[in-house]
## 1
Amino acid sequence: MKHLGFTLAEVLITLGIIGVISALTLPSLLNDTQGAQVGPKLGKAAAMFEQANQVLLQEYNSDRLSDAGLWVSRDQNAAITYGNELSKYLKISRYNGTAYTVPTSQTFSVRISSNNSSWLSKDGVIYYIQFMDSVRLNNKSHIALVAVDINGSASPNLPGTDVFAFSLVDDGSLYPLGSVNSRPDGQWSYSWRDYCRNDEIPTNNAYYSCTASIFENNMKVMYKMR
């Protein structure tokens, strides 16, 4: 007599095979899905910041933030003043909520507080602005660090995953950290080509260089995210 259907042993073996395949492929699928969302969000956040700076400079009839009196070397109170002016065009408000981290001397340890210039946009992006001494690179003056958390206070709050770092140029443009010669304070020398290679997991203290990786790979995440 022929038996229709599968035996219990056959079903269990099949489920086991499916489980093994899922365990092998699911992390990659999740990484691809997450990575596909990062590029557009980061690109939009950076573009809006730059556009707001250009409108701000037009209002001041200037082509440099320093000439407009909106940058004072390492003066965080001045950074707050600058953020207040920028908020007129970027639609951001002061943010003193959950802490996240931004790069400083090749690590991520700066915490948001009421003393920091942190701003939350209406679409949930946090901008952190830290003025620094002006550094001349590629014929441009770099005057500040700008960290962008594309999903606000929501987890994971990790550099290279949802927190990305830029150098702010005096003309209002953003320079992705990890680009060639992106060393706004003379210490961040890592290039994404060395420390955020495609299809590899970046070293922990160089995740900030992945910002340049995204911008130089057509806004795609080519490295392995955490």
## 2
Amino acid sequence: GPEGLMILESISRDKLTWVSADGVRLVMQNGRIISSSGLINNLKEIRLPKKINNKNWLTDRLNQESFNSYYSFSQPTLIDLKVEHQLSPANSDNIEILGIKKNAELVTEIIENQKIGWKYLNKYWIDKDNFVWKSEQKLTPKLPVIYYSVTKKPSK
């Protein structure tokens, strides 16, 4: 779909809720989109292992071990789809957002469920403080990739 502007609606602990003018909401936790609403198919929840639900999950990269999570969707309803994740090492990569260059590292994550034939490469550009400035994420098998860039780091 077309590009859009989302505004930070709220911060609750480590979860950021972003909203667009047409009512689409994305909830992010440490750079990962963990739920959505207002789309034709929504990600209701991701249940991640406790070791992944922390601020450093991208930089730690868990020694490249794979891990499983459970995705739940609406429209149609699908509860606890088991998804395998494999993180790759970070590579230095400079990004530009609104004409401002930032030093970043690119971390990639393969997500896959062989049963439904869903496989995608998510990308996260992070700074030295573990903040995700830019990302490409596949939320559901039925939606296109969501590309986002943060223009101003939220204050907490």
## 3
Amino acid sequence: MTVDEAREWLESYFYYGKKILALESEMSELRLRAMGSGINYAGTQSSSKTNNTEKVLIDIADEETRIEMEINAVHTKRAEIRAVIDSLHNPDLEAVLITRYISGYTLEQTAQQLQYSVESVKKKTNKALMLLAKLYTKIPDNTL
């Protein structure tokens, strides 16, 4: 793994968070559709209408299951990234990477949060990325 690959891989944590939000939004939309499809048609509709409603609800349930599996997979990928950061066994470097990539702070915000200069954050980030590049010769599967 190169330093640039390590940086890109850590940055994916942020985008995985965005993907989780998008999937949760999609799940909410499905649930609204399900509520709209679940209107009681008792005695006023033909059995084909009831069967059609059941099919829609089954399709929505299947889609919800797919989305839940995808959300779980993304959570797993985020946990892998966090475990890699923790594997540095250097609290100072871990704090910089967590603040920078997990919390998504800018260099300036990270410096302010950790009470370092921006230059110090840059150096610590680069040191941590070089360590990760040495420790991990292959980036874990980070496809979305």
